[in-house]
Amino acid sequence: MEKFFVNVEIGSIILYVEDNKVTKIKLSNKIEEEEEETQDNIFTQQIIEYLNGNRKKLDFNVKISGGKVFKKIWDFVKNIPYGQTMTYGKIAKKLDVNPRVVGFAMNKNQLPIYIPCHRVIGKNNIGGFNSDLKWKKYLLELEKITNWR
Fold first, then answer.
1. Looking at the whole model, is its pTM more than 0.90?
2. What DSSP designation does 128 have?
């Protein structure tokens, strides 16, 4: 398994790649200084383009592991447009599942940013995030989303 890094001011985005597919994206609160940023591959190139505002959707190859219901939710969330949000309840209603199931699926998402779970918010608050909430705020602000405040 290969690991690629992109450092930002609040930490590092670590991409785990196996057989030319991203299997996990970790949002670390620590800047991985001992590791060199790797920019000569499609995975980190697309992340950097996203961070710079030049890419609205990631489309590199991934390997998604999970059950049928979670995959249905992740597929739906993947299509929430850049710069927009949707509540857990709205997603649940559209997919005919319990809002808690949507929350569980977001919590188990191994590919944040690719499956943009940061765009899923609570009815009256920012909601949760499987990484530190400062990452959710960072990504929402990056996309100029302010309706969670």
1. yes
2. -
| Neighbour count for residue 110 (Cβ, 10 Å) | 19
pLDDT band at 147 (very low <50, low <70, confident <90, very high): confident
Residue length of the chain: 149
In this structure, is the dihedral angle defined by the CA atoms of residues 70, 74, 80 and 85, taken in order, positive or negative?
positive
Tell me, yes or no, if 117 is annotated catalytic.
yes
Q: How far apart are the first and last CA of the chain?
A: 39
Whose structure tokens read 């199931």?
101
Q: Is 119 exposed, middle or buried (0-12, 13-18, 19+ CB in 10 A)?
A: buried
CA 37 to chain centre: 19
Per DSSP bridges, beta strands 2-8 and 11-18 are: antiparallel
pLDDT-based confidence at residue 27 (cuts at 50, 70, 90): very high
Q: Given 117, 120, 139, 145, which residue is catalytic?
A: 117
CA contacts within 13 A on the Cβ side of 138:
19
93: left (phi over 0), alpha (psi -120 to 50) or beta: alpha
Taking the CA atoms of residue 66, residue 71, residue 77 and residue 78 in that order, the dihedral angle to the nearest 10 degrees is: 90
